Amino acid sequence: MQCNQLVRLIKEWYLHVSEETMAPARMMEFIDKHVKSCDVCREDPLLQRDIEKIRAFILPESKIPKAVRSQQNGPTPEISPEVSPDDETVEEAAEKQQPTAAGQDSDAAEGPAGN
Hints:
By secondary structure, this protein is mainly alpha-helical. The protein is about 70% helix and about 0% strand. It has a domain at about 5-75.
């Protein structure tokens, strides 16, 4: 970073963030605003790289835009396990149990009536 004013401001803003009197996202907004208005910052070729390092350090994972997080982390694995054609579904298992239960109910109903 070549801009001494930006370095001073970042230190000052970071103190506010660490004291929880400023939101980290707000600090990044102030940095972006300063960079747009400062001639020294606009001419610094490595500044964007430095700002991205600060952004990664300052912002919690949940505040990084979802599109950026998905690019960084790659594809997410499936949550549900794959079901093979041989596996029973919940409905199929329930259907197998119902005739047995119905048969027991009808036998139970016939038992007392038959006596």
